[in-house]
Amino acid sequence: DSNAMWGGRFSEGPTAIMREINASIPFDKRLWQQDIAGSKAHLKMLVSRNIITAEDGQKILEGLDKIAAEYAEKGVPEDWSLEDIHMVTEKRLADLIGSAAGRLHTARSRNDQVATDFKLWVRDAIDMVDKGLTALQMALVIRAEEHAATVMPGFTHLQIAQPITLGHHLMAYYEMISRDRSRFSDGRKRLNQSPLGAAALAGTGFNIDRHQTAKALGFDAPTANSLDSVSDRDFALDYLMSATQTAIHLSRLAEEIIIWASQPYGFVSLPDAYSTGSSIMPQKRNPDAAELVRGHSGRIAGCMNALVMTMKGLPLAYSKDMQDDKPPVFEAHDLLSLAIAAMTGMIETLTFIPEKMRKTAEAGFSTATDLADWLVRQAGIPFREAHHITGSAVRLAETKGIALDALSIEDLKAIDPRIDESVKAVLSVDASVASRNSYGGTAPDQVRARILDAKKTLGLN
Ligand code: ARG
């Protein structure tokens, strides 16, 4: 019975391959709870509209509860010939309660069913991610508070620029994560309309109540256009884009941890719990968790790209390509959840090494701008000229192998006679950070004020 044109190389005919490419049950079984919840809401609405009898409704309800208990206990059976979670469940319902099972699918299609299930799943995923990101923010705030006045070098071009406080640096990531959370929550608001009742694509002739099912499933309203309802995957893309943006932030922080843990920097040491050794080099202590957070971020962006590519050419309404929407979302969610948890753990347990940070800031002439600013303010020198004078001071300190504030007043006067004793007060890294007291600046007072705001937002004390 294999095809006359190409059947020679098939032992079973094309059906085995068709079954395999068509089956989504290996991954969409993950939607089983949402599928049962959607079915129950639909069922109750059908009964209340007298589309099916209360008696059949009761049978179906008990059947669905039994199936849910079975899935919870033993997992969802993977029958490829039944394709997907919707058909596996419907078939099981028929086995359990007989022909009444066939009434559940009245005024419904798998197209609106899967859109509903997937929205419910993504909504839960957003809530989980928000919890994880909140925990990460708390960890950042706690460590920032410990280090509100810890001086470290701030970088531009990864070259030492100006001294900053470690608390300020950590709070920068707090801000990024705040935006990530708001991005996810925007997506959550936007997705919260129920596609259920859009049926295959055109709506249904049955007298259904879409408002009732929307409400029962926690949606704000039913969707307004049946075609859009079954072909919209914006919510999944919103999720993936938010996940990608979050992953970028996690990856940048991971990159910094990796750099900081490297011996020439030595700004942090990672706890054993988040490091690994080498099988050949006994001295090694590798920042694998941070590297994998950085690595995962690339895969998350890849998941986003996968769904963009899937969706971009699809005509209205449903096409089977859309079955491919779930694996990238599931994968991205799993990777992101793990990355957030690993980053939270690392932030909580990192040992910062303030002496090394301070030394590096001093050795890098990070207060050069403060000297130039002093020349402008105290000696009335134009900034460009001050910049030049300061450059000579840096060159001298570099030649002598000392910090800028270790230059003697005679040395400084030799460079420019307008310099006097009072310059010493601005050349230390502590004076430098304390002076940057503009709103949102790195001064410990500013950092502490922002930490207080953050704690209020997070509901901490
Ligand atoms: N398993 C399918 C999916 O995930 C369900 C919808 C199937 N609809 C259809 N017309 N074949 O997209």
UniProtKB/TrEMBL annotation:
<dbReference type="InterPro" id="IPR022761">
    <property type="entry name" value="Fumarate_lyase_N"/>
</dbReference>
<dbReference type="InterPro" id="IPR008948">
    <property type="entry name" value="L-Aspartase-like"/>
</dbReference>
<comment type="pathway">
    <text>Amino-acid biosynthesis; L-arginine biosynthesis; L-arginine from L-ornithine and carbamoyl phosphate: step 3/3.</text>
</comment>
<dbReference type="InterPro" id="IPR000362">
    <property type="entry name" value="Fumarate_lyase_fam"/>
</dbReference>
<dbReference type="Pfam" id="PF00206">
    <property type="entry name" value="Lyase_1"/>
</dbReference>
<feature type="domain" description="Fumarate lyase N-terminal">
    <location>
        <begin position="8"/>
        <end position="302"/>
    </location>
</feature>
<dbReference type="InterPro" id="IPR009049">
    <property type="entry name" value="Argininosuccinate_lyase"/>
</dbReference>
<keyword id="KW-0456">Lyase</keyword>
<keyword id="KW-0055">Arginine biosynthesis</keyword>
<comment type="similarity">
    <text>Belongs to the lyase 1 family. Argininosuccinate lyase subfamily.</text>
</comment>
<dbReference type="GO" id="GO:0004056">
    <property type="term" value="F:argininosuccinate lyase activity"/>
</dbReference>
<keyword id="KW-0028">Amino-acid biosynthesis</keyword>
<dbReference type="InterPro" id="IPR020557">
    <property type="entry name" value="Fumarate_lyase_CS"/>
</dbReference>
<protein>
    <recommendedName>
        <fullName>Argininosuccinate lyase</fullName>
        <ecNumber>4.3.2.1</ecNumber>
    </recommendedName>
</protein>
<dbReference type="GO" id="GO:0005829">
    <property type="term" value="C:cytosol"/>
</dbReference>
<dbReference type="Pfam" id="PF14698">
    <property type="entry name" value="ASL_C2"/>
</dbReference>
<dbReference type="InterPro" id="IPR024083">
    <property type="entry name" value="Fumarase/histidase_N"/>
</dbReference>
<feature type="domain" description="Argininosuccinate lyase C-terminal">
    <location>
        <begin position="365"/>
        <end position="434"/>
    </location>
</feature>
<dbReference type="GO" id="GO:0042450">
    <property type="term" value="P:L-arginine biosynthetic process via ornithine"/>
</dbReference>
<keyword id="KW-0963">Cytoplasm</keyword>
<dbReference type="InterPro" id="IPR029419">
    <property type="entry name" value="Arg_succ_lyase_C"/>
</dbReference>
